[in-house]
TrEMBL record:
ATP binds at residues 235-242. Residues 21-48 form a coiled coil. InterPro entries: DNA_helicase_UvrD/REP, HelD_bacillota, P-loop_NTPase, UvrD-like_ATP-bd, UvrD-like_helicase_C. The keyword ATP-binding applies. Residues 214-615 form the UvrD-like helicase ATP-binding domain. The keyword Hydrolase applies. The lineage of its organism: Bacteria, Bacillati, Bacillota, Bacilli, Bacillales. This is AAA family ATPase. It comes from the Bacteria.
Length: 786
């Protein structure tokens, strides 16, 4: 830090803050009165709505005039409501700026320019009274990018007119609170470390914070990237991937504000808890939240309610518990079904189906088969074979609808129709009377009213009964995708391509998959495959309105899932953020994750190596047991080295854990996580501790993250952070293989300030080769007799 400013400068800066705050207050007052007027307008229009429209429906002309008048009044109302909404949003932002109008400044001298201009940077732009000059620039404005990208010296930024270069002669950061300047410092670095130090030194919050004032240069590359159709971010634990992703959403919404709305952006998050954890960041930045969901929620929506869908966490529990006779085959199945080899197999099967094999359903009406499935099959396979299956099914659908039309005429004459007419609603009878009256008005024909009424009633009854059937036919419900999919596993006659790859235990896999499918149970690995199959068989209803897709924890998605996503969101740009060291799902052991370059054709890649979340001693500790840990750089923040507490017996464990919790509480930690490997483990510890400390058990159903002490399985703690973390059982038998290493790393890296690991007997061998000074190792032989 170089404090090159003098007292006069300090006074000037102080005065400027006061002036800007004063201007903001004036704007707030004026907007408040505008908001009040608009609100009154809205109330008045709503109250007098029907008085202000001319309602007359006697004559056709009057009817049209009435409609126009209602429409005009409704448009007027919604325009006022919209304006009121916009003014309220502006007011919200100004109220935030009133507290902290800006956080940074650069003085920039354009090349060939005569003077240097001070650029003050804040959460949003503020203009002076005449609306001529910027008192504050929005952090997302093109010129503000230099604040994040350059130290003092040569700098440039892009505008729509081209690149503008020049020199930054000053770079300053401000600490402003409650509208008052508390401190400032000039910096030679991109963003001064001391400011970051103070932000990161705070206690963890149950809500993620926005990082606008301390965005780091490499994070800015993610936030402002506009070129890449697929942007891959590989970032170590705590490097700010999620933070950067959310600021990127805010940036895109600002940059494309004329064309992009928050509904056109989707974020897939790792668990429901995470949804609530990040929910406040965008509103804090003055933007609406994007659509946010887990991939499980998304897949669930694609299936009808009769399916039972395994959650990824249930799959994970199964994998980690290592039990069951068919365990080996199921794990093999998880690997295979994650891969593109499996996709190739399904594609081959779909090709086969274009010549034979689709399972159809009978069309039945009132319990009778009216079009047998064999007939539908015959019709289908007579349609042009080179057309896509979905197009051919469309033809079949039209053909069936035609048959239904014929049937309708025949059915009208049958006895059941009159009987069922008694079930019609009163409104239907009134309708029929109206129709008759209208006919009488316009027709000269004489006919028996009673007969005509019966005829119309018959027509109505049959149309009414056929309506759901027609709807189903349009939805192609005459195809049975599940049975068709099941056939894939019941025979291999259709496999005619020798280059297709099958797993060793394919027969066992086929057997269990079929059993599951029979019960309409979809395992987590089967769900994307079935949905992919069904969509490609019946035709895709792709989500073309979605412009940007963000996938957090991208390493946990399988290549197969990604292919499905690409099909479902065909026009979307994608930002994939993840960390290979935190790959905790079975497929990641053998297959490429989404972050690997191997199978991503065109993409841009950004690597983040600096970890901001944890203190330096925690980062040093966690990086030392990861194979590629030397690439991880800690951010210099002091703290204690982690504790490894080895207890001899089980009954000592609880006491030691409780003591550790108390110690952390005394240190002021407000969020403390007791992290276990599986839910089963967490449940046991929770049952033992719940009478001794106030503690909450987090399961996959948890949607809200509160302050206090939680017991949570590692896979649910993904993406989240805590003041202190206690690893419940870091024993060697509990953390063995490579996937468990990643799980262990994920769990330990949730800690911001303090980390303690407990083990019964020898701690995990992952700690064997790491330098002893990186942690404090205690062995407890018996509970001290104090
Ligand atoms: N530039 C920054 N300024 C201030 N805080 C930052 C910055 N970058 C990251 N952080 C903080 O570091 C912590 C970790 O950030 P974040 O959760 O975004 O990382 P991540 O890479 O998604 O982590 P993980 O993969 O471990 O879940 C958060 O508390 C975040 O606020």
């Amino acid at each position: 830090m170089s404090e090159e400013w003098n007292d006069q400068e300090w006074q000037e800066e102080k005065q400027r803050v006061d002036d800007v705050v004063h201007e903001i207050k004036k704007k707030i007052t004026s907007l408040q009165s505008k908001a009040k007027d608009l609100k009154e307008d809205v109330i008045d229009i709503r109250r007098d709505f029907w008085e202000d429209v001319t309602v007359n429906i006697e004559e056709m002309d009057d009817k049209i005039e009435t409609e126009a008048s209602i429409k005009q009044q409704a448009e007027f109302l919604s325009e006022r409501e919209r304006s009121h909404g916009q003014v309220s949003e502006k007011l919200d932002i100004l109220r935030r700026l009133e507290d902290k109008p800006y956080f940074g400044r650069i003085d920039f001298k354009e090349e060939n320019g005569s003077e240097e201009l001070p650029i003050y940077i804040g959460l949003a732009s503020v203009l002076d009274e005449d609306e001529d000059n910027f008192l504050v620039y929005d952090w997302r404005a093109p010129i503000s990018s230099m604040y994040y990208d350059y130290p003092p010296g040569p700098a440039s930024y892009d505008t729509v007119q081209g690149n503008i270069s020049g020199e930054i002669t000053l770079k300053r950061q401000y600490m402003i609170q409650f509208g008052e300047l508390k401190g400032m410092f000039d910096t030679g670095l991109t963003i001064g470390d001391h400011l970051l130090q103070s932000v990161l030194g705070n206690q963890a919050s149950t809500k993620m914070k926005s990082i606008v004032s301390t965005i780091q240069r490499e994070q800015n590359q993610i936030i402002r990237n506009e070129r890449a159709k697929v942007l891959i971010v590989q970032g170590v634990a705590g490097s700010g991937k999620t933070s950067a992703a959310l600021q990127r959403v805010a940036y895109l919404l600002y940059r494309y504000r004329e064309t992009l709305t928050s509904e056109q952006i989707v974020l897939f998050s790792p668990n429901p808890l995470f949804n609530s954890y990040v929910a406040t960041v965008l509103p804090e930045l003055g933007e609406d939240n994007m659509q946010q969901m887990t991939f499980y929620q998304y897949l669930h929506r694609q299936l009808d309610d009769s399916f039972q869908l395994e959650t990824p966490f249930e799959q994970m529990e199964y994998y980690l518990n290592k039990q069951g006779n068919d365990y080996e085959a199921r794990v093999e199945s998880m690997h295979y079904k994650a891969s593109l080899d499996y996709k190739a197999l399904i594609d081959h099967y779909l090709e086969h189906l274009s010549t034979r094999g689709i399972v159809f359903r009978n069309i039945t009406f009132r319990g009778q088969v009216i079009i047998p499935k064999q007939m539908i099959e015959k019709y289908f396979y007579q349609t042009e074979g080179r057309l896509p299956i979905a197009d051919r099914l469309e033809k079949v659908s039209n053909w069936i609808l035609l048959q239904l039309k014929r049937l309708e005429k025949v059915e009208r004459e049958k006895d059941w129709v009159l009987e069922e007419s008694e079930l019609l609603e009163k409104a239907d009878y009134v309708d029929v009377h109206h129709m008759l009256q209208e006919e009488n008005q316009f027709s000269e024909d004489t006919f028996d009213d009673y007969d005509r009424e019966e005829e119309l009633l018959r027509k109505k009854v049959v149309a009414w009964r056929l309506r759901p059937l027609r709807k189903k036919v349009k939805q192609l419900a005459f195809v049975d995708p599940l049975r068709t999919f099941r056939q894939l596993f019941s025979s291999d006659q259709w496999i005619t391509d020798g280059s297709l790859i099958l797993p060793e235990q394919w027969k066992e896999i086929c057997y269990t998959t079929e059993e599951h499918l029979k019960q309409k149970y979809l395992t987590w690995e089967d769900a994307p495959a079935f949905i992919y199959f069904e969509k490609n068989l019946l035709g895709f209803d792709a989500q073309r309105t979605i412009q940007h897709l963000f996938i957090d924890e991208a390493q946990d998605y399988t290549p197969f899932q990604f292919v499905l996503m690409k099909q479902m969101f065909p026009v979307s740009s994608m930002t994939l953020l993840g960390d290979i060291n935190q790959a905790i799902y079975a497929h990641a052991l053998r297959d490429e994750t989404l972050l690997s370059e191997k199978w991503q054709e065109r993409h841009e890649r950004i690597v983040l190596t600096r970890s901001y979340r944890s203190t330096a001693p925690i980062v040093e500790f966690t990086k030392s047991f990861m194979p590629n840990g030397d690439l991880i750089e800690p951010f210099e923040r002091e703290g204690d080295t982690p504790i490894v507490m080895e207890v001899e017996q089980h009954d000592m464990l609880d006491q030691k854990i409780v003591e550790q919790i108390e110690l952390y509480e005394q240190n002021g930690h407000e969020t403390i996580a007791l992290i276990g490997k599986t839910l089963e483990e967490c449940q046991t510890v929770y049952d033992r501790l719940k009478h001794r400390v106030t503690v909450e058990l987090m399961t996959q159903e948890a949607h809200i993250f509160n302050k206090g002490i939680v017991v949570i399985p590692a896979y649910l703690a993904k993406g989240i952070e805590f003041d202190a973390v206690i690893i419940l059982d870091a024993s060697d038998h509990n953390f063995q293989d490579e996937l468990e290493r990643n799980l262990f790393y994920t769990a330990c890296t949730r800690a911001m300030h303090d980390l303690a690991l407990f083990s019964i007997g020898k701690p995990t061998h992952f700690l064997q080769d790491i330098p002893k000074q990186q942690y404090r190792h205690y062995k407890v032989h018996q509970i001290s007799q104090k």
